[in-house]
Design a protein that fits this description.
Layout lengths: L29 H15 L5 E5 L1 H12 L6 E5 L8 H15 L2 H8 L2 H5 L2 H4 L5 H14 L5 H13 L2 H5 L6 E6 L7 H10 L3 E6 L6 H4 L1 H16 L1
Helix pairs in contact: 1-2, 3-4, 3-8
Length: 234
């Protein structure tokens, strides 16, 4: 998606414990990640910036914008993972609980299983061709062996237990919540509510989109983000 942000300075860190970044030296909770993000902003020396996030990272960006010492000028979050409690959540909780019970080697194979990872793809992808879907899945498969089972389990459990409404009410900067009307992970009603409790929040719904707008429709997602930037900075 970054190729559609000509004229912007972009900084794209891996979260600790993902990609090539080392894990945190503490539990990987959303609050600890938000504290890390705040320290990262200070270390890079950012004085004015916009925080952009997707899915789980949206929760981290939201908390940092509420509690951090180095808050952004504005916040854009796409398909923020405001996890609901239902049968699907129960299945996900069991999945990560099993990874915590297993020895590390087995847990890594469990969390990095292609069979388990591929299961929800037919419902996650909404707007791409089959050929494009296969390419995106192939890219995802390359990252599976890198997943740290302890990190992903701790983050999921924290997301399940974190009251995002509390933090949302404390975000004073302009905030854009982008939602997919067909998102099977985060129901539209949940993000409608979250946007409503943000003091300076806006909600934009992509009608035919699911959870993966940044990789399915990168140009459209970037355009939405830039229009918001221009609106609050005008």
């Amino acid at each position: 998606m970054v190729q559609h942000f000509d004229g912007f300075r972009l900084i794209l860190p891996d979260l600790p414990g993902y990609g090539e970044s080392e894990p945190l030296g503490m539990p990987h909770t959303l609050l600890n990640y938000a504290r890390w993000l705040d320290e990262f902003v200070a270390a890079v020396g950012l004085k004015r910036y916009v925080s952009w996030s997707h899915s789980y990272s949206g929760s981290i960006g939201l908390i940092q914008a509420a509690e951090g010492r180095h808050k952004p000028e504005a916040l854009v979050t796409v398909s923020l993972a405001a996890i609901r409690r239902d049968w699907a959540t129960a299945v996900g909780t069991l999945y990560y609980r099993i990874s915590q019970w297993l020895p590390y080697g087995l847990a890594r194979r469990w969390v990095g299983s292609k069979m388990i990872d591929h299961a929800p793809h037919r419902w996650l992808f909404m707007t791409v061709t089959r050929e494009r879907q296969r390419e995106l899945v192939r890219r995802g498969d390359e990252n599976l062996p890198l997943l740290n089972p302890r990190v992903v389990a701790e983050e999921y459990m924290s997301a399940l237990d974190t009251d995002l409404d509390y933090y949302a009410t404390r975000v004073k900067v302009p905030a854009l919540v982008v939602a997919g009307a067909k998102d099977i992970i985060v129901p539209l009603a949940r993000l409608e509510h979250l946007a409503s409790v943000l003091p300076a929040g806006q909600l934009l719904v992509m009608p035919d989109q699911g959870h993966l707008a940044p990789i399915e429709r990168p140009e459209a997602t970037a355009t939405i983000s830039k229009r918001f930037f221009n609106g609050f900075s005008a």
